Amino acid sequence: MNNPQETSQPFDRRNFMRTAAGATAAATTFAGAARGEAIDPDKKIKVGFIGTGGRGTGAATQALSADDNVELHCMADVFQDRIDKSLDILSKDEKLAGKVDVPAERQFVGLDAYKRVLDSDVDVVLLTTTPGFRPLHLRAAVEAGKHVFAEKPMATDAAGVRHAYETVKMSEGMPISIVAGFCWRYSPSRIEAYKKVMEEGLIGDVVSVYATYYSGHSKPHLDPSLRTDGMTDIEWQIRNWYNYTWLGGGGLVEQAVHSVDKIGWVMGDTSPIRCRATGGLAAPQAGGNIFDHYHVAYEYPNNVWCHLASRKTPGCLNENADYVRGTKGTLIIGRGSDPFIQDNDGNMVWRYRKPKTGEPNMYQVEHDEFFASIRSGKFINDGPRMVHSTMMAIMGRMSAQTGKEVEWDEAMNAEEDLFANEGGMTWDQSYDPGPVPTPGVTSIEGIS
Fold first, then answer.
1. What are the boundaries of each domain within the chain?
2. pTM over 0.90
3. Confidence (pLDDT) at 216
4. What is the SS3 assignment for 344?
């Protein structure tokens, strides 16, 4: 083992039950979180931080900015150097003065470090590790009765989705808040735009959606020369998690899932009937097993098709936009302007007008609402939709990788369990995550 400094105990991901409820998650009635006792403003809320990378450090900053009486109490990661880097950034932020108190004895390192955070007296946990670990950590956090901020996505495979959905069902009625990192749901401009479509009917009935997530590389490509002697498969893959499907889910599931979530949102978080997709690797790299581009078409009732195009290639068109077409007009979000609606003749019907002070930062808004719910006892539970959007993205990846048309129930019940957990994960185990999939050749049990 090259860098990890703790001898972690092995752990196993729980077994996954496939139930009728799991197969129709979006349609299941969900009571959500219960009301609970408000936390007095004089009581300090202690935060535990699990997964201390760049996005996690951002989430920690926003969490500590969301409440006047909050403290970062402990941190966990599989690598000490990541904790050191994150703690250095947080400690130097003058806006967080007096809110960071994480001595060495409350810095936990290793594959089971998350358990030590959950065993502490923290009130809130931030789950911002690589996504492959999310189902395990979400279950443990809910069982521990902690308030949870969980970064997207909620899983990287069908088995993980089923596990996360069971956890969501467990949380029903519990006096805890669960807020997801699907940050666009907390964007004031997007909330107002979708209200105009879904509640006020300004574009009539939705007949199609076209969403784009075109960008350059999110993470560096693998450089095998950086793998030093003694670096195990598990350490190498976790350090380069973005390039491995079992850890990151690939660009569609890890990042373009935001666009998938907005499709789910405008379609009322109902499940698509089926999807068909294409994808591949346009710029071969020296390792990993992910695609760098996708096009997914989701079919809904009444011949409504929702399309998502995702590409991560430098030097090409960059765009993150949503075009929602209806019988009376079109909502356009994110193409160089605030959201707006035009009728079928091109006349402006509505445009979002941001406050003079600017639109509030959606990343901060989600944490502001999260901590306000904890203080008030009016708890939030994003559980059903955060799992549903994750499954939609995984469903699209399944179709692209296999070249098959995939139905919703097939995807939910597929025998897809990619996590490296045979015999319990340990640092020194070998793990071959498989090659880049070949459409028409690659198969997933349960996908016909």
1. 20-185+363-382, 188-358+391-413
2. yes
3. 86
4. coil
